[in-house]
Give the backbone structure.
Amino acid sequence: MHWFKTLFLVLLVAGTILRVWLSWRQLQAMKTRRDHVPPPFDRSISIEDHKKASDYTAVGARLGILDIVIDAALLLAWTIGGGLQLLDGWISGFGYGPILTGVAVILGAFLIMSLLSLPLSLYRTFGVEARFGFNKTTPALYVADMLKGWLVGFLLATPLLALILWIMDAAGSYWWIYAWLVWVSFSLAITWAYPAFIAPLFNKFSELSDESLKQRIEALLQRCGFQSKGIFIMDGSRRSTHGNAYFTGVGNNKRIVFFDTLIDSLEPLEIEAVLAHELGHFRRKHIRSRLITGFVLGLVGLAVLGFLKEQSWFYTSLGVTQPSSYMALLLFMMVIPVFTFFITPISAYISRKHEFEADEYAHEQSDASALISALAKLYRDNASTLVPDEIHSRFYDSHPPGPVRVARLEKLLGS
């Protein structure tokens, strides 16, 4: 057995075992910690809401274990099991030429994967989310979202894949540099276009009509030096009762978006505090650093792919007998998570550090006590657990546990 195949199998098995173990730890934490609301949330979250969050997290962890095992089995079937080889052989028989064949194989593989993931997705939406009172999506809306998502993905991915596959075959040994430039340009263009052209295909956006709240937010934006295309309310309640807020877009096309569920749940001062936290990510340059880090890692990844593309063992170790540029790209996209999974805690740590820094900025620009009360409502309304397993949280969580985060904010208030 080739060393690369052995390494792939070892990391896949080890990663699967680790992921299942982490989910099991999370399950145990939910069982042992569901009967006690940790301070200071015991003043604002009832024991019934706390138990609901624990049960909701536990169901997600159980479903996650099933998802982990299925994902590993499907990856083996696609690669060493010969699934990609069969798909490639079937589509190649139509004689479309290398670029069109490559685009068809890649899109076909992802379409099949999407269809295979459909049963669990349906169960999450109409089973788990409905059971805990979150789902508002109708079957018709679910199907419409899925079809629109596929269509948008097809229209965007087809020209991008065709161009990158052409570059891989025509641009020589350093094709990966040109492909990276195309990918960066495409990513920035999509980020710029998303708020105005893509997001409205799925949701309705209306400008904030509450004048007093709008003035409060505009004053905050002015203090923070943030220029925005507008403040919008999204009809999140059409699909779910979960609440959220986010920034979207780049350059002169940045927007602030609040879910209508969040607007309905929070007081004006709490909304200002939540927005101040999000602005903290902007002012502390977290968004820029994440973007740059992503682009640098993308360049490194494409350089690695440039090497692997020329190695016959890369294909044969993963169940493919006929090397090609499109198969190299597809194999790389499918197996790279197996090799990068173990550095997940690093990105999670950096993200949690950024959350603390954004909280500090919110304290400087708004009211930390309002942020604390907003967090309590968000944890309650979204059934987010306050008591995650420590190891699971350190490995995965992009946000610090609620009690840890509030303790930091209370320390800022007392300083």
Remarks:
- The beta strands are 205-207, 231-234, 245-248, 255-259.
- The two ends are 62 Å apart (CA to CA).
